[in-house]
Amino acid sequence: MTATTTSGKPLSVRLPRRSRRSGARRRSVIAWLFLLPFLAVFVVYTAIPTIAALGFSLTDLRGTDLRNPFAVDFIGLDNYAWLLSDSRFVRALGNTAIFVLVGVPLTMLLGFVLALALNEGIRRMRGVFRTIFYAPVVANVVAVALIWQYAFNTNGTVNEVVANLGLAGPNWLGDPNLAMPVVILLGVWRNFGTAMVLFLAGLQAVPQDVHEAAALDGAGWWRRLWHITMPLLMPTILLVSVLLTVFYLQVFDEPYLLTDGGPLGSTESVALYTYHQFGFGQFGLSSAASFAILVMVTVVSIIQLRLLRPRA
Amino acid sequence: MTVVAPPEITHDDVRVEQGARPATRARRTPEVSLYAALAAAAGLTLLPFLWVVSGSLRSLDDIRAAPGAWLPSEVTFDNFVRLFALPGFSTYLVNSVAVAAVVVAGNLVAASAAGYALAKFDFAGKRLAFGAVMAALMVPYTATFVPQFVITVNLGLVDTLAGIALPSVALPISIFIMRQYASAIPDELLEAARIDGAGEFRIFSRIFVPLAGPALATITIVSFLAAWNNFIWPLVVAQSTSTYTLPVGLAATSQAAQNVTDYGLMLSGAIVVMLPVLVLFLFLQRYFVQGVAATGLR
């Protein structure tokens, strides 16, 4: 059957097929033309820089070599070795770990509790509360950092309250032990709205009839939360934890604006370290440090894809 | 950054009616305390906004005399007058607006074209092209800004507004939003026009784009927000005050005055930076939230 059709195919059938194939090629060309603006920006500002970051990290590129970035010396893994021996970089790694380990759970917990309260606890003014809790997400970080400095300086509005309690308020951002909590507080304040909105979307997808059936069977609120809501919400919980982890791994704006990494390097994140090395003209070193961020973010993203695959 | 299947978000609180059973007294008591707790949380959330408004309306002497006071002893708009009289401030404002305008326009064009192609065309290399969008979403900007800067220098765009705007004119999140939206538009609509002999560009511009309104609105908001609030990249590219955007100018002004911080001036600047976005947010909240929900990104 196959033989007869292929051999006995009349010319008139073959022609439209060929023209259809060239039509498909034409449509491919058009599709790529439509993609061109994005692809041009992607190649110049993402693809080449990602590869270049790796390349730079293996060289001694400095700010003075800018016009001629290919005339630098290849120094292998020296930058990476130097980073690991630099106590300041190790400190930045540790600080970034604190940002992630403290910031992520705090942000998630706040976002989750508020989403739960808005979704199940109240019947009016949900929109108003959601608007208020989301507003910090859209607030400009430079502006908010100025407010933080106004509020947390030695004579600021926060210490006004502390003074009313009869205590002497500290210089929050100037104290190596207190600066980090204040910087993290800004991160949490800026991000819990995102977590809340995502949790709210997840909660609204939890089928109501399962809850009602369990309630009829005598399951209390906590039991239902733990045994019905939480398991069904697992994909959202993973999503939010990954998004926030990626955010805090790259945290830059908050420490840069509030403390510039100080006092005594107590709030310098890896991203901020990268920026500081860049400022010193140490482009190779800076690239090596930034590549460390890329690796950490990629690892988290891969774990996320793994975890989400069974369900998706 | 990371992208996951878009969770559906319901904007109307549909379940309000469903859950409205006759409230017994036992139910009402916890609900009242919950409202109280939520109101307290809302108050804490809004506190920084209260501080910035009150601080910006306090006079220099007022802040000097009682730096920690929560309310102005006397309301004055003097700080705003001084702010706009600052040399450079109007330049920062104009620069910010110009960069945002270019970024939004670029995203509308690039995303509708690319999103349309990714959703409605079958072509060789489609997976590769979509992979590029995903890769662009995932690569952290902190990992690429050094080479980006080297490229910008070699393109001769350092210390120019074009250099600040260009990397953001085709944001992957915009393409992603448009692709998701375009996938939901039935093929029949486009096919009908194709049978009528309309060319591909005509189908795109006359049939597809008019249907893509909601996605275009979301992209406008998302890209405006990205451009207006962007900080690290303009900080790196802008080398002179003539190319500073508002956030960079504000940060520079406050750092220059490290020891004698003029909080009234700074806070009035903070308000000018925040206000356009907050006003947009109040009126177009739906699109802001859709932007987040669509991809789990900001």
From TrEMBL, chain A:
Transmembrane recorded as keyword: yes
This protein's GO CC annotations: plasma membrane
Pfam families, A to Z: BPD_transp_1
Compartments in which it is found: Cell membrane
Domain of life from the UniProt record: Bacteria
A Gene Ontology BP annotation from the UniProt entry: transmembrane transport
Topological category with respect to the lipid bilayer: Multi-pass membrane protein
Keyword presence, 4Fe-4S: no
Residues annotated as domain ABC transmembrane type-1: 93-304
Main location class: membrane
Keywords: Cell membrane, Membrane, Transmembrane, Transmembrane helix, Transport
Residues passing through the membrane, by range: 29-56, 97-119, 131-151, 178-201, 232-251, 288-308
Cross-referenced InterPro entries: ABC_transporter_permease (IPR051393), MetI-like (IPR000515), MetI-like_sf (IPR035906)
Family the UniProt entry places it in: Belongs to the binding-protein-dependent transport system permease family.
Name of this protein: Sugar ABC transporter permease
TrEMBL record, chain B:
Transmembrane annotation, as ranges: 32-53, 92-116, 128-149, 161-182, 203-228, 263-284
Listed GO CC annotations: plasma membrane
Main location: membrane
Localization per record: Cell membrane
Cleaved signal peptide residues: none
Domain ABC transmembrane type-1: 93-284
InterPro entries linked: MetI-like, MetI-like_sf
GO biological process, one term: transmembrane transport
SUPFAM superfamilies assigned: MetI-like
PROSITE patterns in UniProt: ABC_TM1 (PS50928)
Keyword entries, A-Z: Cell membrane, Membrane, Transmembrane, Transmembrane helix, Transport
Membrane topology per record: Multi-pass membrane protein
Pfam families on file: BPD_transp_1 (PF00528)
Gene3D superfamilies hit by this protein: MetI-like
Keyword Membrane: yes
Family statement: Belongs to the binding-protein-dependent transport system permease family.
The protein's name: Carbohydrate ABC transporter permease
